[in-house]
């Protein structure tokens, strides 16, 4: 008989048929079904891991999943009851660092979490009573998170006990509501941060690591 499957190889019904029919005592096989308990359903966010080939993270409902074989298979990493994970992202240059943001209950409150071990464990780094629309993480000496929210753009160090720093995107409005944030990093250069403002107020860009002004 077949000795088994290499780690990461997809398991298909046709392979199961072949194995079963290869037994001299088996005349026929019907209705082979492969059933798994936890797989991504409605995916709200998908992120590649820049430090591991073929590795992806997916947010689906209250859960975060990881694939190590370009989505042939998925494993459940964590589930946060009463929440909906809306964003997940990785940090280029910092292997293992993954961030997520989730909506808590049916209100506007959000939680931002970080993992430093490729999603195996998570800790809360920020809780807000307003909605965090998007998160991005980048290396600025140490990993930092930028959170675009209904109350403006925030920068958060991942050091324990850190407090989110409100960034002034537009001098005329210290809390301009934001939809999305993206970060580009280059060796030895300040982070470039772009944020999309709500209410058709345009896109703002910082070439100085998102500093106010």
Characterization of the model:
With 213 residues, the chain is mainly beta. The chain contains one helix and 15 strands; from the N terminus they run αβββββββββββββββ. It has one helix at residues 13-21, and strands at 43-48, 56-60, 63-67, 75-79, 83-90, 98-104, 110-115, 123-128, 132-140, 142-149, 152-157, 165-167, 178-184, 192-197, 203-206.
The parts where pLDDT drops under 50 for at least 5 residues are none
Radius of gyration: 21 Å
Percent of residues in helices comes to: under 10%
Give the distance, in angstroms, between the N- and C-terminal Cα atoms: 68 Å
Q: What class, by secondary structure content?
A: mainly beta
Name the beta content range: 35-45%
Strand and helix map with partners:
Layout: H1 13-21, E1 43-48, E2 56-60, E3 63-67, E4 75-79, E5 83-90, E6 98-104, E7 110-115, E8 123-128, E9 132-140, E10 142-149, E11 152-157, E12 165-167, E13 178-184, E14 192-197, E15 203-206
Antiparallel strand pairs: 1-2, 2-3, 3-4, 5-6, 6-7, 7-8, 9-10, 10-11, 11-12, 13-14, 14-15
Short recap of the structure:
The chain has one helix and 15 strands; from the N terminus they run αβββββββββββββββ.
List the main descriptive attributes of the protein structure presented here.
213 residues, mainly beta, four-stranded antiparallel sheet, 4% helix, 43% strand
């Amino acid at each position: 008989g077949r000795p088994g499957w290499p780690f990461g190889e997809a398991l298909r019904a046709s392979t199961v048929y072949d194995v079963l029919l290869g037994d001299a005592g088996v005349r026929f096989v019907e209705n082979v079904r492969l059933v798994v308990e936890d797989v991504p359903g409605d995916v709200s966010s998908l992120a590649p891991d820049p430090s591991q080939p073929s590795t992806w993270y997916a947010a689906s409902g209250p859960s975060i999943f990881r694939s190590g074989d370009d989505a042939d298979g998925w494993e459940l990493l964590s589930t946060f009851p009463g929440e909906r994970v809306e964003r997940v992202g990785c940090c280029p240059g910092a292997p293992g660092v993954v961030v997520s943001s989730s909506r808590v209950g049916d209100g506007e409150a959000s939680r931002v979490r970080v993992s430093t071990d490729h999603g195996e464990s998570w800790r809360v780094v920020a809780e807000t009573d307003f909605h965090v629309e998007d998160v991005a993480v980048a290396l600025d000496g140490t990993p930092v998170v930028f959170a675009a929210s209904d109350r403006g753009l925030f920068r958060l160090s991942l050091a324990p006990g850190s407090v989110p720093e409100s960034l002034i995107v537009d001098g005329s409005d210290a809390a301009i509501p934001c939809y999305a944030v993206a970060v580009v990093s280059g060796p030895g250069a300040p982070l470039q941060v772009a944020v999309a403002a709500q209410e058709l107020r345009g896109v703002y860009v910082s070439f100085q690591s998102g500093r106010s002004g």
